């Protein structure tokens, strides 16, 4: 196929590199940053840079942009896409985005598939993109009632070709409720955790637990704010649950209730052990 990747940041750049390294597809790229395009052309990740008026060359387009930008760019340029071609996005929220993207696709005779690759790194941008980013990761697809089955199958096959080992089907609404807990809440906790003034004294006192807790504090604040606001309801619920649980630990500590603290820690351990056992069977 001829595949166009729009937005060559961490995810888009990694798609270009993985597709070029692992498949025989012809990879086109589009990005507003001229240096990024030069780098992608120079390292062979893309075979050609396409201006919007040439987007019709693509059989399949992957839009790798922040949610609101993805919708805007697709809406403005959908008329340039070849009719009946496949368009996928990789946005981290799906309910509102899938509805908007699907509406545009239907208007212009395109086949839309919502996806969310569960992969990332602490830092963004093309320079941090790598061809192995998707290896042994999960790839979520969020088909709608009108999603073309052949397009969905094509996108799933492509995901396997670049290294994803698990395809997960979900409704957009279920996706957003779960991702609020598994991803978005963790980013807020990490960001809040590093705001203790004690971080100034951390050198020489840290091991794996500190690194695990703070790794994702180096977020792209613009992208993650967009994601949080798009998923406000589910994320607020998870924050409220977390805060209520933290209050229990605080109360046990303030009252020097070692028995209660032990109980709380045991509860957490058993929940995580069940989670690990369930995951290993999947």
Would you give an account of this structure?
- With 282 residues, the protein is of the alpha/beta class.
- Helix content is 52%, strand content 13%.
- The chain is built from ten helices and eight strands.
- It has an eight-stranded mixed β-sheet with strand order 3-2-1-4-5-6-7-8, with helices on both faces.
- The model has no long low-confidence stretch (mean pLDDT 96).
Task: Give keywords.
282 residues; alpha/beta; eight-stranded mixed beta sheet; 52% helix; elongated
How would you classify the helix and strand content by structural class?
Answer: alpha/beta
Helix content: 40-55%
Task: Output the radius of gyration.
Answer: 21 Å
- The spatial strand order of the largest sheet comes to 3-2-1-4-5-6-7-8
Number of contiguous helices: 10
**Strand content bin:** 5-15%
**Helix/strand order:** EHEHEEHEHEEHEHHHHH
Q: Tell me, what's the shape? A: elongated
Instruction: Give the mean pLDDT.
Output: 96
Number of strands: 8
State the major sheet.
8 strands, mixed
Tell me the span between the first and last alpha carbons: 32 Å
pLDDT under 50 segments (min length 5)?
none
């Amino acid at each position: 196929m001829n595949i166009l990747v729009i937005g060559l940041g961490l995810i888009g750049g990694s798609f270009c590199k993985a597709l070029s390294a692992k498949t025989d597809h012809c990879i086109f790229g589009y990005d507003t940053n001229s240096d990024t395009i030069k780098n992608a052309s120079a390292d062979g990740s893309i075979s050609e840079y396409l201006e919007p008026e040439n987007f019709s060359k693509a059989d399949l387009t992957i839009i790798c942009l922040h949610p609101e930008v993805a919708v805007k760019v697709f809406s403005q340029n959908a008329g340039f896409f070849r009719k009946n071609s496949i368009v996928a996005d990789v946005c981290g929220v799906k309910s509102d985005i899938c509805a908007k993207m699907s509406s545009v696709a239907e208007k212009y005779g395109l086949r839309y598939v919502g996806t969310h690759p569960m992969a990332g790194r602490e830092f963004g941008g093309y320079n941090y993109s790598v061809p192995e980013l998707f290896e042994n990761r999960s790839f979520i697809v969020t088909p709608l009632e009108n999603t073309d089955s052949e397009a969905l199958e094509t996108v799933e096959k492509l995901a396997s070709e670049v290294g994803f080992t698990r395809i997960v089907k979900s409704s957009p609404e279920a996706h957003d409720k779960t991702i609020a807990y598994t991803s978005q809440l963790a980013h807020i906790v990490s960001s809040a955790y590093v705001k203790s003034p004690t971080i100034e004294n951390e050198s020489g006192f840290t091991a794996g637990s500190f690194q695990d807790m703070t790794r994702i504090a180096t977020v792209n604040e613009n992208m993650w704010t967009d994601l949080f606001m798009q998923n406000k309801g589910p994320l607020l619920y998870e924050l409220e649950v977390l805060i209520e649980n933290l209050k229990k630990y605080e109360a046990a500590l303030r009252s020097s209730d070692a028995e209660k603290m032990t109980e709380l820690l045991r509860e957490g351990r058993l929940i995580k052990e069940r989670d690990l056992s369930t995951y290993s069977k999947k």
